[in-house]
Specification:
The protein has 357 residues and is of the alpha/beta class. It has two domains: 241 residues, Aminopeptidase; 108 residues, Alpha-Beta Plaits (2-Layer Sandwich), CATH 3.30.70. 31% of the residues lie in helices and 24% in strands. It contains ten helices and 16 strands. A six-stranded mixed sheet has the order 1-2-6-3-7-15, sandwiched between helices. Strands 10-11-9-12 form a four-stranded antiparallel sheet. The protein has a three-stranded antiparallel sheet with strand order 4-5-16. Strand 4 and strand 5 form a beta hairpin. The longest helix is centred in the N-terminal third of the chain and has 18 residues. The model has no long low-confidence stretch (mean pLDDT 95).
């Protein structure tokens, strides 16, 4: 079967196996482990049942090809069917982020299986919510002997060596409920919150260079119980991405300074460190040679599972099929030819890093 036909078929199959946090991960795990079993690869499952990571190894000291099989929910407003192909592009949730990369990894594994080229495959089911699966693989030191780890997130074949840190936190205010006709008897928690949030306006501004500068976004707000009741609680959730010269504590300190002296509570919900790979490493140079001169070595403002691997391996990169701007959007899509290209890139990189290219 021609590689392009295989790539199209496998990508559509993965897209149709829904894998958001709302879906049962079992069918996806069964299908992928079945593929790996068919290739004769020894594998282990790490993490919890609903946040698992599939790790398969062929030989020792080979490149790790890493991806996540989960997606954000499909959402509404699509003009294309899941798995539909138009003009050489396949549409569907996860098409770019990142079932295209996972399909390419599995097809590269098929090409390499049975040879003496060592490689490993790491596919997770919870990247969009917690990254616990990737963390469990790293804690088991499965990556320590690898000459490189390539995360197949969509990068349009640019090579990502730098990611900003992430901190997500909640800010809560409290008040006293009362009948809305007698507001003097209550203490409005929403009014308190709105007054405080004005202090964040300066650091919420869109930066000129979001890859390098701090970003802060207020993304959810909840408060009140009914139209005629003074609200006694209010909560906002805030997402911040920070450069390597800052820490999560720096962000919280800056936010508290801007919020002023009002009474409130801050709870950190999720935090990821920044990560940066030395772009002069041979592992980076070799991948760029294979991808070709059109690729750039870049940093990005978002986080991938690369950050979970940083304490177990220092040769970390993101490079994959699809445009990053397709992630999480309505009518998400990827060029099928990019999946085919990625298969060749990953297989050749494994060979070259094993000294066989």
């Amino acid at each position: 079967m021609a590689l392009r036909t295989k790539a199209e078929g496998l990508l559509k199959e993965l897209i149709l196996l829904r894998s958001s946090k709302e879906d049962d991960a079992g069918p996806m795990v069964d299908r992928v482990t079945g593929i790996l079993d068919g290739l004769g690869l020894g594998q282990k499952l790490y993490g919890s049942e609903d946040k698992s990571a599939i790790f398969a190894r062929s030989g020792r000291e080979g490149v790790v090809l890493s991806g996540h099989l989960d997606t954000v929910p499909i959402g509404n407003g699509w003009s294309k069917e899941q798995g539909e192909v138009v003009g050489g592009r396949m549409f569907g949730r996860g098409a770019a982020d990142m079932k295209a990369g996972c399909a390419a990894i599995l097809l590269a594994a098929e090409e390499l299986a049975g040879t003496d080229v060592p490689f490993s495959v790491c596919l997770t089911l919870d990247e969009e919510i917690s990254m616990d699966g990737a963390k469990a693989v790293a804690h088991a030191h499965e990556l320590g002997d690898a000459p490189a780890v390539v995360v197949a997130e969509p990068s349009d074949f640019d090579i990502v060596v730098r990611e900003k840190g992430l901190i997500q936190f909640a800010v809560r205010t409290t008040g006293t409920s009362a009948h809305a006709s007698m507001p003097q008897l209550g203490d409005n928690a929403i009014t308190k919150m709105l007054s405080m949030l004005r202090g964040l306006e300066e650091i919420q501004k869109t930066p000129e260079n979001p890859v390098e500068e701090l970003t802060i976004c207020i993304d959810t707000i909840h408060g009140g119980t009914q139209m005629n009741v003074i609200p006694d609680s209010c909560e906002v959730e805030i997402d911040s991405r920070f450069p390597p010269d800052m820490t999560g504590d720096d962000v919280i300190g800056m936010v508290k300074e801007k919020l002023g002296g009002a009474e409130y509570e801050v709870e950190v919900l999720h935090m990821l460190e920044p990560v940066e790979t030395d772009s002069s490493l041979p592992a980076v140079g070799t991948l760029r040679e294979i991808v070709g001169g059109g690729s750039s070595i870049i940093g990005v403002p978002y986080a991938t599972e690369m950050v979970m691997f940083k304490h177990d391996n220092s040769n970390l990169m993101v490079c994959g099929p699809g445009e990053p701007t397709q992630a999480h959007v309505v009518d998400e899509s990827v060029e099928i030819d990019q999946v085919v290209r990625a298969v060749g890139v990953y297989a050749e990189y494994c060979r070259r890093m094993a000294g066989q290219g």
